[in-house]
Write a structure and sequence with these properties.
CATH superfamily: Electron Transport, Fmn-binding Protein, Chain A
Number of helices: 4
Shape: globular
Structural class: alpha+beta
Largest sheet: 6 strands, antiparallel, barrel
Oligomer: single chain
Mean pLDDT: 95
CATH topology: Pnp Oxidase, Chain A
Strand content: 35-45%
Radius of gyration: 16 Å
Low-confidence stretches: none
CATH class: Mainly Beta
Distance between the termini: 32 Å
Number of domains: 1
Number of strands: 8
CATH architecture: Roll
Helix content: 10-25%
Order of helices and strands: HHEEEHEEHEEE
Length: about 160
């Protein structure tokens, strides 16, 4: 698994485009696994700071209970309407809860979360990153798949 900084070092252009896709929408869609193994999708805010991807939210969230039980997750950036679509991004990996004060302080200092505000925090380790984009002439979907240590595989679909 890898951090977002690892993607930035290995594939800076792809990392820039993936981050832009995520930053284009305030809310993302997070997929987790319920206790019975069925999927759960939830709206969530995610942030990139200091080369890492973070998930933060309100205490006692059922989504975060899912992640404590089974850390596997997928996160989608959201998409524009077809006429405006240029790219969207997806990441999958594992989320680990951050409970130590140093880790939480690193996040709050980087993001400006008000002191004393209660929140739960998870750090994401990446197993896969996918950027789905359209070609300049809008005739082809270009799918870029990155996995740590394997580089980027690009597929085009017309």
């Amino acid at each position: 698994m890898a951090s977002f900084a690892d993607l930035e070092a290995a594939e800076p252009e792809l990392a820039t485009r993936v981050r832009a896709a995520f930053d284009a929408h305030g809310h993302k869609v997070l997929a987790t696994l319920r206790a019975d193994g069925s999927p759960r999708v939830s709206g969530i805010e995610a942030r990139f700071t200091d080369g890492d991807l973070w998930l933060a939210g309100l205490p006692r969230s059922v989504t975060f209970a899912d992640l404590r039980r089974d850390p596997r997750m997928a996160l989608h950036s959201g998409s524009d309407e077809p006429a405006d679509f240029s790219a969207d991004a997806k990441v999958s990996g594992r989320a680990a809860e951050v409970t130590d004060e140093a880790g939480r302080a690193r996040f709050t200092q980087a993001t400006g979360v008000p002191a004393g505000q209660p929140f739960e925090l998870f750090h994401v380790e990446l197993e896969q990153v996918v950027l789905t984009a359209v070609s300049d002439d809008r005739s082809t979907l270009v799918i870029s798949l990155w996995r740590p240590g394997r580089g980027v595989v690009r597929t085009e679909r017309t």
